[in-house]
Each structure stands twice: as C-alpha cells, then as structure tokens.
Design goal:
Blueprint: H1 2-15, H2 38-41, H3 47-52, E1 55-58, E2 63-65, E3 80-82, E4 87-89, E5 91-95, E6 98-105, E7 108-113, E8 126-129
Antiparallel strand pairs: 1-4, 1-8, 2-3, 5-6, 6-7
Length: 131
C-alpha cells in the first residue's frame, strides 16, 4: 500500500544507522536528543521526506509553534514550544521557498519552522522520523 511505502521511506530517510521507531502509544519524546548532539540525529533528506513523513523529531533546544508560515515572527507571536527530542506530528509544506511543518495546536492550524536558513541558521530544526 502507499501508506506502507511512505512509512518505509521515512524509516530509511530517518534511520541512517539509528535503530529506533516510534510506537504510536508511546510518549512522543526521544530521550538524549539535545541541541548539542543534534548533528548525530540529522540526515540529508529532501522533498520526498518533507511530503511523506508525518512525524518529526525536534533537534533544537526550543522550536516555536507560530500562527503563520512567516519567519519574521518572534517569541511574542508563539502559540507554544517544542523542545529537543519531542516528536511532533504534522505535514511538511513549503511556503515562499521555506520548509515548514504544518501542525494542529489547540484545535487550530499552526506552523513550526523546519529550515533554519530562513532565520540565518544553516541547519534544519526538525528531522523526519518513522511513525
């Protein structure tokens, strides 16, 4: 089925030598992921992962959940936060050539920035994971 294919793709895209998967009933957090060791978790992934993966690992110490896909938003605009190791369900999307994760936050659509380049940081803030 196409669902199996996309999950399998995410597994291959995300694992790169890591052996973990995310049982659906488990608390959505991976221990020992920190901003300091985020490079160990980061992989090279592309548009297919952005489109197909539905669970994302937070690599930054703090990622803001914001109301719009606009990198000019600041801490005062945030609706919530996720921290390193959190698993966030959502749909990858591109808005104005910037990668975002579209999420549900308290019943409304919101966004988390994936592509740090939009704010002058040369790394991804989220990593696709199997789920």
């Amino acid at each position: 089925s196409s669902h199996f294919g996309s999950s399998r793709f995410c597994l291959l895209a995300a694992q790169r030598g890591r052996s973990f998967s995310i049982p659906r009933a488990m608390a959505q957090k991976i221990a020992n992921v920190t901003a300091a060791n985020a490079k160990e978790w980061a992989t090279a992934w592309g548009d297919e992962a952005l489109e197909k993966c539905k669970h994302w690992l937070v690599l930054e110490a703090m990622c803001y959940v914001v109301p719009k896909a606009d990198p000019k938003q600041t801490a005062k605009d945030k609706l919530g936060i996720h921290t390193a190791g959190d698993i966030v369900p959502g749909d990858g999307t591109v808005v104005n050539n910037i990668q975002w994760l579209k999420v549900q936050h308290e019943g409304r659509e919101a966004f988390i920035l994936i592509d740090g380049n939009a704010v002058g940081v040369k790394r991804k803030f989220l990593e696709p994971v199997p789920g």
